[in-house]
Design a protein that fits this description.
It is a single chain. The longest helix has 27 residues. The chain is 47% helix and 11% strand. The strands form 4 sheets. The protein has an 8-stranded parallel β-barrel, surrounded by 4 helices. Helix 3 packs parallel to helix 5.
């Protein structure tokens, strides 16, 4: 069955194309530095937002028109697989991602749930044999079912902890079977609503125990995927234990897990934490912890996780600057953890949204590479910190001074000379590079 009858394969047609169903800037084979676009960008489709979301919100029922929704149960799950691989092929996207219950419905017990998973995983495996699209990562949904109301690995119930472990165990087995590049641990409810009834120390200790068990089991079955933590500060809990990259990194170091995990960084989660997207990417990069990216954006006028498709070229440029400086994302990718707006309910909108996101990051990659080639930021930063390359500054960096010597230096200063940071000029320079990219220069 064909689910997207009116859509042909999406091709690159260039910036002057007026075809809405064509890439204007994403040319998979075009070189960005020493890599092709497809190698740097490694786009992925989020199964949950693309094939299971119905457009409902707290104020209204679903609006999405999806031909597969005429089915129910396992028939619906099978139809979604068919639709998904048609979508992947027409979009020419290299990866996809899913939670366990995205692809198969939960049964009345864990045995039935696993049986449903086995059936759909077998079907996906068959489709993958003839597809160029691979599994970027999978994960377990340990947050939707009411059993997770108090958390999963951080739950006050040992039975829920065990149930969560069983689901992740199955997820690791599924990841191995489908050749996943990564496995994500997203603690959807790993946090608290109030400290008044929370044993924070026990919950964080248990979360770390859970992660160690996951590492051990992956080794046991020979699943060599990269493990990822996805930070989020809040929603649905008041405070989540993986608040941001810095908090997550401290957690991993405290529990001796830093050698087993990297971070899957989502743009909208960064802004919810009060950071820019590039801040989170930079913090991960300089600590060698940048693993993968969930590419989306939030609405600055709204204080929740809106998961919009990324169209902000400025943000994408600064994000790609960090990714290129990182040497790429390795086994990670740019997964569109993004959903079309409730008012964009036609099937064609799924293509239009992904095209917009892919073109946005393609422009961002081109501009970022040009900024790197011209050493725009490097020259600015090197000049700003040049006092640490000689004299007392070099002594500080090399650790050959102390408070006595620093005091003597300070007492001998007649004046302290500072230079302007020129923030406005720097931002104008970025604008200039972005506009040149649009002009094809």
């Amino acid at each position: 069955m064909t689910y997207f009858k009116n859509i042909n394969a999406i091709k690159y047609e260039g910036a002057n194309s007026t075809n809405p169903f064509a890439y204007k800037f994403y040319n998979p084979e075009e070189k960005i530095g020493d890599k092709s676009m497809k190698d740097y960008l490694r786009f992925g489709v989020a199964y949950w937002h693309t094939f299971t979301m119905d457009g409902s919100d707290p104020f209204g029922s679903g609006t999405m028109l999806r031909s597969w929704d005429k089915y129910t149960g396992m028939d619906l799950a099978k139809a979604r697989v068919e639709a998904a691989f048609e979508f992947f092929e027409k979009l020419n996207v290299p990866f996809f991602c899913f939670h366990d219950i995205d692809i198969a419905p939960e049964g009345s017990n864990l045995h039935e749930t696993n049986k449903n998973l086995d059936t759909i995983v077998g079907m996906i495996k068959e489709y993958m044999k003839d597809s160029q699209t691979k599994l970027l990562w999978n994960t377990a949904n340990n947050f939707t079912n009411p059993r997770f109301v108090h958390g999963a690995a951080s739950s006050n119930s040992a039975d829920v902890f065990a149930y969560s472990a069983a689901k992740v165990k199955k997820g690791l087995e599924v990841g191995k079977e489908l050749g996943a590049e990564n496995y994500v641990f997203w603690g959807g409810r790993e946090g608290y609503e109030s400290l008044l009834n929370t044993d924070m120390k026990l919950e964080m200790d248990n979360l770390a125990r859970f992660y160690h068990m996951g590492v051990d089991y992956a080794k046991e079955i020979g699943f060599d995927a990269q493990f990822l933590i996805e930070p989020k500060p809040k929603e649905p809990t008041t405070h989540q234990y993986d608040f941001d990259v810095a908090t997550g990194f401290a957690f991993l170091q405290n529990y001796n897990l830093q050698d087993h995990f990297k971070f899957n960084i989502e743009a909208n989660h960064a802004t919810l934490a009060g950071h820019t997207f590039e801040h989170e990417l930079r913090y991960a990069r300089i600590n060698n912890m940048l693993g993968s990216v969930d590419a989306n954006q939030g609405n600055p006028l709204l204080g929740w996780d809106t998961d919009e498709f990324p169209t902000d070229v400025y943000s994408a440029t600064l994000a790609m600057y960090e990714i290129i400086k990182n040497g790429g994302l390795g086994r990670g990718g740019l997964n569109f953890d993004a959903k079309v707006r409730r008012s964009s309910f036609e099937p064609e909108d799924l293509f239009l949204a992904h095209i917009a996101g892919m073109d946005t990051f393609a422009v961002g990659a081109k501009v970022a590479q040009k900024l790197i080639d011209d050493k725009v930021f490097e020259d600015i930063v090197d000049n700003r910190y040049k006092s640490y390359t000689e004299g007392i500054g070099l002594d500080i960096v090399e650790g050959t001074t102390d408070f006595h010597k620093l005091e003597a230096h300070a007492l001998g200063l007649a004046d302290v000379k500072l230079a302007s940071g020129r923030i406005e000029h720097i931002k104008a320079t970025i604008n200039q590079y972005v506009l040149k990219a649009y002009a094809g220069e």
